[in-house]
Design goal:
By secondary structure, this protein is mainly alpha-helical. Helices cover about 55% and strands about 5% of the residues. Helix 3 packs parallel to helix 5, helix 4 packs across helix 5 and helix 5 packs antiparallel against helix 6.
Length: about 240
């Protein structure tokens, strides 16, 4: 007796037509992939001894492309960095192929310009992997002690990652700091100061403090004559008293 064929769930269904918005997103993705650095995927053998290889028919071409993506021309640097990343992402003595390719993808997207930037990018990828591990641990704590331990470690990791980003930025800009002033209004006779300004109370000399208090003591007192007034009075002859 002939076997009955299993029904095909896709039979009779029309092919999906992407919407205009989805097509626009797919075009952006196509442009992004075209501009992204090219690098072969990493393969890890499943034998007793993990062997790291590049998924490409030609090893020379594969390593040349990977070296360009990592900002170096040194073969030993690339192989050493892959080995370090594999050790950092190993689980239970086995190299995590997916995690290794993720870290290589992070380094590649940072677009390192030299080996120093590649090493810093590798550290950032490893710190991120460890950060997500402690995020998972913090979500499954069983007591306060585990919560404090995971929380403190997570806090240190996130601060380290932020410091690494700032370090990479300073290294790429040569440590230069740029200050941009968008709008400044200064009235006539005034002065503008660009930068952080801290105002502290000025200490008056003892004589100045006394003079200020005397000036405020009686505002109704007639002002003393100026030097010009005293001079004018001295020039006017005094009237003689009648005998």
């Amino acid at each position: 007796m002939a076997k009955r064929k299993k029904p095909d769930p896709t039979a009779g269904k029309a092919e999906y037509q992407a919407t205009a918005q989805e097509k626009a997103v797919l075009r952006k993705q196509k442009d992004r992939r075209a501009a992204a650095p090219v690098a072969p995927r990493v393969k890890v053998s499943k034998d007793e001894k993990s062997i790291i290889e590049l998924d490409h028919p030609n090893d020379a071409v594969a390593y040349g492309i990977l070296m360009e993506a990592l900002g170096t021309a040194d073969f030993d640097f690339v192989t050493g960095l892959l080995s370090q990343l594999a050790n950092a992402g190993s689980q239970g003595g086995q190299v995590d192929e997916r995690g290794l390719n993720f870290m290589v993808s992070v380094i590649k997207d940072i677009k390192p310009r030299d080996q120093l930037e590649a090493m810093l990018a590798a550290q950032m990828a490893a710190i991120h992997m460890t950060t997500m591990t402690f995020v998972r641990r913090l979500a499954h704590v069983e007591n306060i002690l585990q919560q404090d331990s995971a929380g403190n470690t997570l806090n240190k990791l996130t601060r380290t990652y932020a410091t690494q980003m700032e370090t990479l930025k300073r290294y790429r800009t040569g440590g230069e700091q740029k200050v941009t002033v968008q709008h400044v209004t200064v009235s006539e006779g005034g002065q503008a100061i660009v930068g952080n300004v801290t105002q502290t109370p000025r200490e008056n000399a003892p004589g100045q403090a006394t003079a200020s208090l005397l000036a405020l003591a009686d505002t109704k007192t007639a002002p003393m004559p100026t030097l010009d007034e005293r001079t004018d009075r001295a020039l006017i002859p005094a009237r003689r008293k009648a005998k």
